[in-house]
Design brief:
The protein is an all-alpha fold and 124 residues long. The model has no long low-confidence stretch (mean pLDDT 84).
Amino acid sequence: MKQTVSRKLYIALVLVTVVFIVYVLGKNLVFDPQLTEFLSHKTKLSSSFVMPAWLTVVHVHIIFGCLAMITGVANFSMRLLKRNRLLHRVNGIVYLVSVIAVIFTSGYLAPHSTGGKVNSIAGA
């Protein structure tokens, strides 16, 4: 009984993650790759804001964020751990690299955030 409940919860977690990733990638890379809707909410952009570089960094941030989410969820799979330890380990390394890439891109994006000083602390 316990195993079926945890399996159902894992499947639900995977489904929610996949739906969220499809939404984020579709919205930000397919339907609005220039992020015009997102940028319309920014009010005071500093003179250091360089649009082409910012777009590239934000796209890298989105892609690695989605990769970190899917690899993180995959590493919760006991089946993956039991059947293929090497794949589980490689998946963990991909997760770690993805998280580091998200952290570095966040450092570039934070000073241009519109959430005030609290949101831009990472770039300070």
